[in-house]
Amino acid sequence: MSSLTPPVPPAPSVPETAANVIEAAEEVHAARTLADSRPPADEEILTVENLTVEFPTDDGVVRAVRGISYTLHAREVLGIVGESGSGKSVSSMAVMGLLPKNARIRGSIRYRGQDLLTMRPNDQRSLRGRKIAMIFQDPMTSLNPVRSIGDQLAEAVLAHHLVPRKQALGRAKEMLDLVGIPQADRRLRSYPHEFSGGMRQRVMIAMAIINDPDVIIADEPTTALDVTVQAQILEKLLEVKDEVNAAILMITHDLGVIAGMAHRTLVMYAGKPVEVGSTDQVFYEPRMPYTAGLLGSIPSLEGERDGRLRPIGGTPPSLIHLPAGCPFSPRCPLATDECRSGEPELAAVGEGHLAACHHSDTLAEAEDATAFFHTPGPEEAR
Amino acid sequence: MTTQNAEPSGTAKAPAAAGAAADAAQGMSIVARSQGQLVRRRFLRHRGALAGMILFFIVVTLAVSSIGAGPIPGWWDKDPTETGQVVAAGRPTLSVLPEFLGGGGFHLGEHPFGQDNIGRDYFALTMRGTQVSLVIALLTGLVATLVGTLVGAVAGYFRGWTESVLMRITDVVIAIPTLLIAGLIGVIVAGRGIVIFAVFLGLCLWTQIARLVRGEVLALREKEYVEAARSVGTRSRRIIFKHILPNTMGVIIVSATLMIASAVLTETALSFLGLGVQAPDTSLGRLISDYRTALTVRPWLFYWPGAFIIGIALSINFIGDGLRDAFDPRQTRVRD
């Protein structure tokens, strides 16, 4: 639950006291964890196949998404992680149909068999908010400052249902109750500036679930909030997921959030998925150096023998001029000539576990995958 | 809170304290106010706006009640069209200076604003002019604001060819001198009454507001709450009218008031050219142009309508200023 404790396999060398502390912390934080929530079903809700998104600019074509495929099942939480510019937000905006007009979108996005990309704009609009809803990153700017909370919530209902305004407001009140805002009927008349950041994000969650959607896209829903509020919001999200029976597409750059929230995880780099698998597989058995690098660059409460983080050197490549071969090769400690000439395809490395790396076997054999990113500290260099 | 006030003041101490504590414990010690109440409070605390409101109210009341309008009978006994004997070179008989300051005390006299050269009562004329000018100014401002807002919002929100077409039309209207189009319209609708005249005048003054609103909308359409509204499936029309335009209210109100003020002046200019209000009817602008040569011999024929023009323009501007501040829910501090 907490973003401070990403699950790293408990190494045998960890002192028992540390393990106890972690367990205790988890018990305190995790009033509701993924394990408590209802398990995913086999039913396929959203299928994205070979989606590419390009933006023509004066400097050349920006290849923001270069082919991403995934399937979201009912009640499943799929985490998409990646650093800024890896295409995670753009791919989800493509699902919402909210990309600017100049975007060139190819591939297919199917919601229960209907292709969203070939659909008429008005049909797509009618799905938005009713079947596929979105929670935005910054609750401070995602609510209209001049309209009351109740108005904005009711609007989400009225956009899809021919009901009296009063009934829509009643629904809005129910939703505020559900997301845990006290005195909901009074709060309907409040304006966004009268709410704190955490409360506004609750309102955004209420707005997303007000029409009982099948899919909730949460685009970095906790980035703008502080850590304690983050935990509450994520908990609330899991709670409402069960309440409305929705699947969640969780987009984030926070591995801690993914660890506590997602059934499956998809790691993106330079517009492409580089590793897909169950969250445990991705966290405990990374088969792509980038994933390992991400895991090594966050502080951990356990198993950090030399007490230093292992950051990934360099910066992500320009999406206009991608390097030949694997886009991660310039930063990869395992890179060989093979990596610099041919871009690896996603290949199965385990059951339901895919990775795009020529050297996933090397990682599989390694005891600690993050150790490849070890950079000598100043005292060692001397 | 109310129960505590109902207690007799002598015995209220203990129960009131207990009540307040209970209120605080429940988090209920805040008095809820509706948005309308808040707007009214903010507006009334804005001194300039309040003064403008009072001045505007006085001008309107005076203009309507004195000579009457339509079925409303007036208390002033003279008609703006009625000619008569020029008394005392038509000097104003209005006296406001009290006797102990060397004045004649407060009295209206026979012709408080004086008379013109053919003996018409200038008070009645000014009142009629004020009525006509107000109707033209308000109607013109309304039409110009509606058209301008609509054009600007649609162009700014939809972009693409819609924007190109609308803004090129706007450019063309701007490129032609306003007075020229307005004059042309004046000729076309001459003698069809002031309402038609005002509507057409509004149809050639909307360009400024259209550009202003388009600029605002261009910025607002990129806001996250607009994206959030789209993500719940809100229709474009609703996004424009419910999300974007309320956020441009400040700009619209201020430019609408400026528009009303400038409509008074445009009407003056057109009347001066003989293209505005046609005789025997009159307006403040027409009065000024009619008696422009009398400035040296009968200055009151010039400064009475002038004072009313300034009064109307100023009071409307102050009201607009107050409205803009009052409508902004983000504003917590009231100007003093």
From TrEMBL, chain A:
Keywords: ATP-binding, Cell membrane, Membrane, Nucleotide-binding, Transport. The keyword Plastid does not apply. Its main location: membrane. It comes from the Bacteria. InterPro entries: AAA+_ATPase, ABC_Ni/Peptide_Import, ABC_transporter-like_ATP-bd, ABC_transporter-like_CS, Oligopep_ABC_C, P-loop_NTPase. One of its GO terms (biological process) is peptide transport. It is a peripheral membrane protein. GO terms for molecular function: ATP binding; ATP hydrolysis activity. GO terms for cellular component: plasma membrane. It holds the Pfam family ABC_tran. The keyword Hydrolase does not apply. It is found in: Cell membrane. Residues 46-295 form the ABC transporter domain. Belongs to the ABC transporter superfamily. NCBIfam families: oligo_HPY (TIGR01727). PANTHER family: DIPEPTIDE TRANSPORT ATP-BINDING PROTEIN DPPD, OLIGOPEPTIDE TRANSPORT ATP-BINDING PROTEIN APPD. This is ABC transporter ATP-binding protein. It comes from Streptomyces hainanensis. The lineage of its organism: Bacteria, Bacillati, Actinomycetota, Actinomycetes, Kitasatosporales.
From TrEMBL, chain B:
GO terms for biological process: transmembrane transport. It is a multi-pass membrane protein. Belongs to the binding-protein-dependent transport system permease family. Keywords: Cell membrane, Membrane, Transmembrane, Transmembrane helix, Transport. This is ABC transporter permease. It is found in: Cell membrane. GO terms for cellular component: plasma membrane. Residues 130-320 form the ABC transmembrane type-1 domain. It comes from the Bacteria. The chain crosses the membrane at residues 50-72, 132-158, 165-188, 194-213, 244-265, 301-320. Pfam families: BPD_transp_1 (PF00528), OppC_N (PF12911).
